[in-house]
Amino acid sequence: MLGKWFSEWEGIKPEKEAQRRIKIVANSCDKRDLSKFSGFHFETIEGTKNHYSIRIGGKWRCFFIWENNQAWEIEISDHNYKKIKGK
């Protein structure tokens, strides 16, 4: 399923690594596990409740909500997340 999903976003490089990172987010039971991967750049989105992001390749980030020990509403975006952090 992720292969089809990723085909909608051209320019995510390396694609296999991005897929691996999203699988890790989707399968995690504790968000603290995500901070163990320094390359993820796991961050809380300031000014929001339970919103987080990781870097998945270049300008791309994976945003998600963390509730009930799992990631929800996982979204890939290339927009400037710094604007979100400033809200």
- CATH-defined topology: YaeB-like fold
Kindly state the number of beta strands: 4
CATH architecture term: 2-Layer Sandwich
Distance between the amino and carboxyl termini: 33 Å
Point out poorly predicted stretches: none
Secondary-structure-based class equals: alpha+beta
Number of helices: 3
CATH superfamily, called what?
RelE-like
Helix content: 25-40%
Spatially, the strands of the biggest sheet line up as: 1-2-3-4
Secondary-structure element string: HHEEEEH
- What would you call the shape? globular
Mean pLDDT: 79
Cα gyration radius (Å): 12 Å
Main β-sheet: number of strands, strand sense, barrel status? 4 strands, antiparallel
Give the SSE layout.
Elements: H1 2-6, H2 15-27, E1 43-44, E2 51-57, E3 60-67, E4 70-77, H3 81-85
Antiparallel strand pairs: 1-2, 2-3, 3-4
Q: Can you give a write-up of this model?
A:
The chain is an alpha+beta fold and 87 residues long. The protein has a single domain (2-85), classed as YaeB-like fold, CATH 3.30.2310.20. Helices cover 26% and strands 29% of the residues. The chain has 3 helices and 4 strands. It has helices spanning 2-6, 15-27, 81-85, and strands at 43-44, 51-57, 60-67, 70-77. A 4-stranded antiparallel sheet has the order 1-2-3-4, with helices on one face. Strand 2 (51-57) and strand 3 (60-67) form a beta hairpin. The longest helix has 13 residues, at 15-27. The model has no long low-confidence stretch (mean pLDDT 79).
